[in-house]
Amino acid sequence: MLTITGSLAGAGILFLMPESVTKWDKEDIKNLGTNYLRKVKSGPVVDKDEWWLNWITHPYWGAVYYLQTRRAGFNWGFSTFYSFLCSTFFWEYGIEAFAETPSWQDLVVTPALGSLFGELFYLGINYIQNNNSELFGSKFLGGLMLFLMDPIGFVIQDLKLGKAMGIKNTQDFQSFYLPKKDGITFVATYRW
């Protein structure tokens, strides 16, 4: 849910930015339905985005998508696939297709480099969290880096929003009893 909310907020921020940065024609966005179908049918294309959008921000958001599953306990393969699904269908052929034609750079660079950065961020996050959330002896620097590497995960896990919403940590011990015909069964699960 936070991935969706974050992406919609990101789309809103992009809409407010100058057209010279986003290359989004704001007049074109007003006729959403017709323009969406036209843009999806005419793509993908090679876009004319600034280099920093294609090679920094897109891989960064691919990493954010990747980290949502990786930090939830899934392996790197599934997390890479999830990053591909989110960046392709949720963003490129979803939200962003209302504003611009899907692009080859975004379809390839976002999940591919995003997953590589995501795994590096994942290792960095684990290092910082295993070091009492400190980096170079500073809790502030540790918290800042946790936020910058995974803003959604930071809100869910580090600010304890997930716990407040009833989301359980996958790295915990859970046990419960199941009734059976001839008694009960004790089930214990440790997730790592």
Write up what this structure looks like.
The protein has 192 residues and is mainly alpha-helical. The chain has one domain (2-173). Helices cover 65% and strands 8% of the residues. The chain has 10 helices and 2 strands. A hairpin with a 2-residue loop joins strand 1 and strand 2. Helix 6 crosses helix 7. The longest helix has 27 residues, at 104-130. The chain is elongated. Residues 172-178 have low confidence and may be disordered.
- Calculate Rg over CA atoms: 20 Å
Question: What class, by secondary structure content?
Answer: mainly alpha
Mean pLDDT: 79
Please tally the helical runs, counting DSSP H or I stretches of 4 or more residues.
10
Number of domains: 1
Number of beta strands: 2
Gap between N and C termini: 23 Å
Principal-axis shape equals elongated
Strand fraction band? 5-15%
Q: Give the biggest sheet.
A: 2 strands, antiparallel
Spatial strand sequence of the major β-sheet: 1-2
Low-confidence stretches: 172-178
Helix content: 55-70%
Order of helices and strands: HHHHHHHHHHEE
How are the secondary structure elements laid out?
Layout: H1 2-16, H2 19-22, H3 26-29, H4 32-42, H5 51-70, H6 76-95, H7 104-130, H8 139-149, H9 151-158, H10 161-164, E1 173-180, E2 183-190
Helix pairs in contact: 5-6, 5-7, 6-7, 7-8, 8-9
Features:
192 residues, mainly alpha, two-stranded antiparallel sheet, 10 helices, elongated
